[in-house]
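ARCHIVE CARD
CATEGORY: sequence design from structure
SOURCE FIELD: tokenized fold
FIELD CONTENT:
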């Protein structure tokens, strides 16, 4: 078992494009469906696997491009440490003062280490200054507990 780290930050409006954050339905719309429904299905089917947007289900980071992996660790503690570094890096931009509190950040890192050690993915999100959003995730790989059939992106 190992862990992969992911970071996304950007405009909240882009993050809110939920159709691009979930995999397309396994079956395309039936023949005779409205053209806009067929077109939207094609867009999502083409964009979901290549988009840098965080998926709604954390495990689906594993099907995103390999270039989005920001780090890989064998040990949960090392992955949680990386997450702590990212939290410290972005904390000055957090919209909420309570999210910046050092005790809260330390608690998040410790909780992440425990979750990752047990094989559970970790995903945190924060509103940043202006209408921006930050998504941080560490995904357990080989196998992923939430979706074991997903292949490792760096294998």
């Amino acid at each position: 078992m190992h862990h992969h780290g992911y970071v996304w930050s950007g405009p909240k409006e882009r993050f809110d494009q939920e159709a691009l954050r979930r995999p397309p339905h396994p079956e395309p719309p039936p023949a005779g469906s409205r053209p806009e429904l067929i077109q939207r299905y094609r867009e999502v089917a083409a964009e979901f696997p290549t988009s840098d947007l965080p998926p709604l289900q954390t495990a689906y980071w594993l099907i995103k491009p390999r270039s989005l992996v920001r780090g890989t660790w064998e040990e949960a503690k090392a992955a949680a440490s990386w997450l702590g570094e990212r939290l410290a890096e972005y904390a000055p931009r957090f919209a909420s003062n309570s999210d910046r509190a050092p005790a809260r950040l330390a608690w998040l890192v410790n909780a992440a280490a425990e979750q990752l050690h047990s094989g559970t993915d970790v995903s945190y999100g924060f509103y940043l200054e202006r209408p921006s959003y930050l998504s941080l995730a560490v995904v357990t790989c080989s196998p992923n507990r939430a979706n074991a059939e997903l292949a490792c992106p760096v294998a």
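CARD ANNOTATION: The first helix runs from residue 12 to 15. The chain has five helices and four strands.
SHELF: design records, drawer C
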